[in-house]
Design goal:
By secondary structure, the chain is of the alpha/beta class. Helices cover about 40% and strands about 15% of the residues. The chain is built from nine helices and eight strands. An eight-stranded mixed beta sheet has the order 1-2-4-3-5-6-7-8, with helices on both faces. β7 (about 230-235), α8 (about 240-255) and β8 form a beta-alpha-beta unit.
């Protein structure tokens, strides 16, 4: 069953009209229709909310009293995608963590090149803090370019001296815009969604002449020391596999607690197909467990400190 599910998803991606390297103005509609094609479950609540001056969608799912917050960044090569199209994946995270997920509508390239997306990510994070939500009650997640943006946010938080969130989970992260990973070659024939050429086009649009090795554009080259615990997931059928593998190695070398999970035969951001793909649902279950565990640890620590202070 699993192999047939994977084969069907890979065939769907190979025959999709989406061209990740195509005209962004034409591809945005195709991308949003593809990503947002599944009906939103009835127990999902999604409302538009401004956070730190940035448009977001606040998502809860199957939980009357959500605890904690997750800041979520959609994928799309920094040129495609939207918070609205990503509601289903945001809801999947909300359901598995029992949190409120804030899907961020960061500005897209080429109209708004680097570092506009990073600026929006930081503003949204500051917006959560300004609401009175403790940093220890906030986690961060993102997929593809959104995974890279989530990592860039963590680096920016450290550089700005802001309190860090409790944990982060990144799915198939685009962490190296120089495209120096071997998997661009070794996985080229297997990846049904992405190509080196398409990603090079999106990187050029996003960077607009900026240095691709900037730590806020390519977090793989950042100093990761002091970042919160990371969960990194990737499929073995994607050209971005080495971004995940090298990121995990860099995080470990920089003394960051990191968990790397790879899924054999799975394509880029396979978690987005969790409604019909067992591996996708299993991966999201592990994301939920990872984030919830760290959020709960923070709650227990703060609770213990408060009790100690009251004695």
């Amino acid at each position: 069953m699993t192999q047939s599910q994977l084969a069907a998803i890979i065939d769907l991606l190979r025959t999709s009209p989406l061209d990740m390297g195509g005209d962004p103005h034409k591809m945005r509609l195709v991308f949003d229709e593809m990503i947002g094609s599944h009906p939103i479950p009835e127990d999902v609540r999604a409302i538009a909310v401004e956070l730190g001056g940035v448009d977001t969608i606040e998502v809860t799912a199957g939980c009357d009293k959500p605890s904690g917050a997750v800041l979520y960044f959609h994928g799309g090569g920094y040129a495609l995608g939207s918070a609205a199209a990503g509601v289903n994946l945001a809801a999947d995270v909300a359901r598995r963590t029992g949190t409120t997920v804030h899907a961020v509508d960061y500005r897209l390239a080429p109209e708004n090149p680097f570092p506009a997306a990073v600026d929006d990510a930081v503003a949204a994070y500051r917006g959560l803090l300004d609401r009175g939500i403790p940093a220890g009650s906030i986690a961060v997640t993102g997929e593809s370019a959104g995974g890279g943006l989530a990592l860039a946010l963590l680096v920016a938080i450290k550089e700005a001296g802001l309190p860090r969130p409790t944990a982060a989970a990144v799915l198939s992260p685009w962490a190296d815009l120089t495209q120096s990973g071997r998997s661009y070659e070794t996985k080229a024939a297997l990846d049904p969604a992405l190509t080196r050429q398409a990603l090079a086009t999106r990187a050029d649009d996003y960077l607009a002449g900026a240095d691709p090795r900037s730590p806020f554009a390519s977090p793989l080259f950042a100093d990761l020391r002091g970042l919160p615990p990371l969960l990194i997931q990737a499929g073995t059928y994607e050209v971005l596999l080495d971004d995940a593998l090298r990121l995990a190695a860099k995080a470990a070398d920089d003394d960051v607690a990191v968990v790397l999970q790879t899924f054999p035969g799975a394509p880029h951001v396979f978690q987005g197909f969790s409604a019909v793909l067992a591996e996708g649902a299993q991966a999201l279950d592990q994301v939920g467990t990872f984030l919830r565990t760290h959020l709960d640890q923070q709650t227990e620590t703060h609770g213990a400190s408060a009790s100690s202070g009251a004695v």
